[in-house]
Amino acid sequence: QVQLAESGGGLVQAGGSLRLSCAASGSIFSGNVMGWYRQAPGKQRDLVAVINSGGSADYADSVKGRFTISRENAANTVSLQMNNLKPEDTAVYYCYFRNAPRDRYREYWGQGTQVTVSS
């Protein structure tokens, strides 16, 4: 089992910045992927950004150039720096963890943190 603890989020005006952080603990194996998804009211949960242990990252087109994902492998943490926030970024943001083959690529989710961007 893997546990995820999220921090950050909140209310910000359009054009502002926020930083989300997530710490993973438990049965963590190297070769994992960490990242963030988000879900707006009435919509499906969508990818925001993910990063593997080698530092290779993928972003949703809607956040490229505004959001930056990073991780510290030794601490098993992942962060999402969100700049130039827009009202359409308003959503619940979920920390995501996909473990290595030793755990059959099992996926884990955080409880979610609310990000609200006012216009």
Kindly list the characteristics that best describe this protein.
mainly beta, 119 residues
Describe the structure.
Strands 2, 4, 5, 6, 9, 10 and 11 form a 7-stranded mixed β-sheet that branches. The chain has a 4-stranded antiparallel β-sheet with strand order 1-3-8-7, with no helix packed on it. It starts with a strand and ends with a strand. The mean pLDDT is 96. It is an all-beta fold and 119 residues long. It has no helices and 11 strands. Helices cover 0% and strands 56% of the residues. The relative contact order is 0.32.
Gap between N and C termini: 40 Å
Query: Roughly what percent helix?
Result: under 10%
Which class best fits the helix and strand makeup?
mainly beta
Helical run tally: 0
Radius of gyration (Å): 14 Å
Mean pLDDT: 96
Principal-axes shape call:
elongated
- Low-confidence segments, ≥5 residues, pLDDT <50? none
Please write the string of helix (H) and strand (E) elements: EEEEEEEEEEE
List the helices and strands and how they pair.
Elements: E1 2-8, E2 10-13, E3 18-26, E4 33-39, E5 45-52, E6 57-59, E7 67-72, E8 77-82, E9 91-98, E10 107-109, E11 113-118
Task: Summarize it.
The chain is built from no helices and eleven strands. It is an all-beta fold and 119 residues long.
